[in-house]
Every structure is written in C-alpha cells, then in structure tokens.
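ESCALATION

Customer reports they have been waiting on this structure for their group meeting. Please prioritize. Original submission:
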Amino acid sequence: MTTTTRVPQADRSRAMRLRLLEATVEVLVERGFSGTTTTVVSERAGVSRGAQLHHFPTRNDLVVAAVEHLTELRGAELAEALSGLPRGKGRSRAVLRVLGDHFSSPVFTAALELWVAARTDEQLLAAVGPLEQRVGRETHRLTVEALGADEQQPGVRELVQATLDLVRGLGLADTITDDGRRRGRILDRWADVLDQQIHHQTTTETA
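Update from on-call: job pushed to the front of the queue and completed.
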C-alpha cells in the first residue's frame, strides 16, 4: 500500500511565490521592464494567471518583490564572499573583484531595468527608492568592513563611496558589451589607489 504525503498549503504557497519571483527576474533580464508582463511571468513560472494575481495583484507589486527578494539573496552572497577573502597583500584587489562581479550580475541588470522605469512611474519609484537606499547602505557598510577603512579619517568615506560608484558604473557598461578585460585593468589601478590612501591614513594615525 502506498501513501501520499501531502505538502502543506503554506509550503506550496511559498514555493509558488518563489517561482514567480525567480521567473520575474529572468524575464526582466531577457526582455526588459516593458516586456515583463504578468502573463509572460506566470507562463515562465508554470503558475496559473489566477494564482499569480492572488500573490501579486499588479505588475509593479511583482517586479518590486522579485528584485527585493533576489537582491537580499545577492546581498547575503556578497557578505559571504567578502568575509571569506584572505587578509594581507592583494586584499583591496580581491574586494574589488567581488564587488565587480556583484555589480555585473543578472540581479543588477534586473534592478537597472526598475531604476529606468521608476524614473517616470511615481508608484514604482515610491517602492524602488527605499529599497535601493537600504541596499546602498548595506553595501557601503560591507565595503568599509572588507577594506578595513576608517571612516573617521578625512576623505575615507568619500573614497569608499567613489569605489562603489566606480564598480556600479563599470557594471552598467557591462550591460551593453562584455567589458571584463577593461574592467579588470581599471579595478587593478583603483586597488593601488585604495592601498595607498588607506595605508597612508593608517600610517598617519599610528605615527
């Protein structure tokens, strides 16, 4: 006699929601915001239109939830990657390599689609704005810790922010064409700048 194990409704609901979120990011990357319709997403996720509307009544609800979900996952991955880097010589370059990968990932491409769409959509902007501020603060904090930067020293906070602006800009360029080799050369040079500036601050402080 065989028995069938029933999956609790709450678990089925969570699994369905996760499929919708993952499918949304895939479609955002492949088709852009304009091509990310609820119909396309529900088909990609293998979820009925009615079930999709139950979880996410509007397209904006769907895309914001999807990017928030996977951005949080990517943030956890970023934290883990940075925490595992060896200390000592080459640390700054290793940090920049991790950040460069972070800002050239599919999740960044999906988020970029939302930024562009939010520029002319007040409802979307109201949802995306706070999310990006929270993500920005957390990424800044992780970068400060990874670099061992002392933001009490003049100019260091701006140096960290310039680092994030740089890797974000390089990630943007990578959405148009494969820019890996040029990105590597730029990040190598910027690692030298970080080493010189952070080392100078440390030397001055302990002198």
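Sent to customer with the following note: The chain has a mean pLDDT of 85.
Escalation resolved.
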